Amino acid sequence: MKIEEIKNSVKEQRVASHSHIRGLGLNSEGFAEPVAAGFVGQETAREAASVIADLIKAKRFAGRAVLFAGAPGTGKTAIAYAISQELGPRVPFCPMVGSEVYSSEIKKTEVLMENFRRAIGLRVKETKEVYEGEVTEITPEEMENPLGGYGKSISQVVLGLKTAKGTKQLKLDPSIYESLLREKVNVGDIIYIEANTGSVKRVGRSDSYATEYDLEADEYVPLPKGDVHKKREVIQDVTLHDLDAANAKPQGGQDIISMMGQLMKPKKTEITEKLRQEINKVVNKYIEQGTAELIPGVLFIDEVHMLDIECFTYLNRALESTISPVVILASNRGLCHVRGADSETLAPHGIPADLLDRLLIVRTSPYTLHEIEIILEIRAKVEGLTIDKEALSKAASIGVASSVRYAIQLLTPSGVVAEINGRTSISVEDVEAASELFLNSKASAQIVQNSLAKWMS
Ligand SMILES: Nc1ncnc2c1ncn2[C@@H]1O[C@H](COP(=O)(O)OP(=O)(O)OP(=O)(O)O)[C@@H](O)[C@H]1O
Ligand SMILES: [Mg+2]
What we know:
By secondary structure, this protein is α/β, with parallel strands linked by helices.
């Protein structure tokens, strides 16, 4: 007999540049642990980031802006990524890069505005009429296909639902049968069906089935109380941009066909300022009535020096509006020109003085040899490589001389070299060989400098 192991549904993670970061790594008193959650060193910036994350969660930081400033490779993007993980999935986090605003079709400020609204969430509580209960039967009733052919088609579905108070049999439309299949509903699951829209949501498995298997990833929920047909509070999280987009082309549905239709529509329907104001009005009304709650999230603009003077002025204004997210900026520039401004004025971080004045600035500082060693050790683990102690300190000293990023990037080629040499663990020679194969930025710049005449300029 063949027995196959069922893989659980956790996706095999790809290794990206921040895969090893799992959070800011603070202890319960709010101090940064030297090494925690994949983060090493950079304690002040991490503590600052955690204060920001706490204030965002307490909704007391909206309309403020923070700048992470520091040399390349000192972990600015990594910290922003960790903040998003600390905030959890319910608080919107919208990352963008300064250069994203340059498009030939959309105005720069429009791109910024759209991202601003992506970063503001709205939690809507609605009381909806639903049918809720444990599924006792699903019986599709077949009929001859009305279009001819051999296939049978479903005319209706009989669904039995049970609650602590009673049971009900429902006759459902075939379209709901498809949603039942999509949600993988089986007998014994607890589900609810919205009466108006017919959308199906699987809540979990009934806990009377809890002892069925020893190992299971399913969530067990108790049998619902009350009647099968009742009113239930449904909580939905949307962003203001979702509302804008939905109202700009209201014909869209939930099913896959209309979603595809939306993607393939050649022209993007414009979201006008007027529409946004209308939506703000409705949103404000909902908030006053208490049916909705505003959740200011985070707009993260990396490489902020890529924005130009128009965008910066726009940011000034947008930060002062009543509905505004927290804006986190990052830049690795020192003194440089502000794009679009007259060429003489230099500004710190490429940001004009009036915006700079509105920012809280957090510095990230370069790493020590020991810190780089630990970062490399963590990275090696994430990439599934084993590395000798001496090789690790060799790579770390290369990191001090060039950059953390270069040292991290050397790990994979070193692993390949080690494999070619028939070793299972990376040794000093492999790191050296890899660093000879691939230059770091300083070495490459030196070569260019020494042989300027041979290069095109
Ligand atoms: N303190 C740290 N602990 C662990 N890994 C780190 C730390 N700081 C940086 N890294 C890792 O080093 C690499 C470079 O960091 P990151 O991309 O955050 O730099 P940056 O400050 O955004 O640089 P740039 O200014 O060039 O954008 C990333 O892979 C990051 O995950
Ligand atoms: Mg970065």
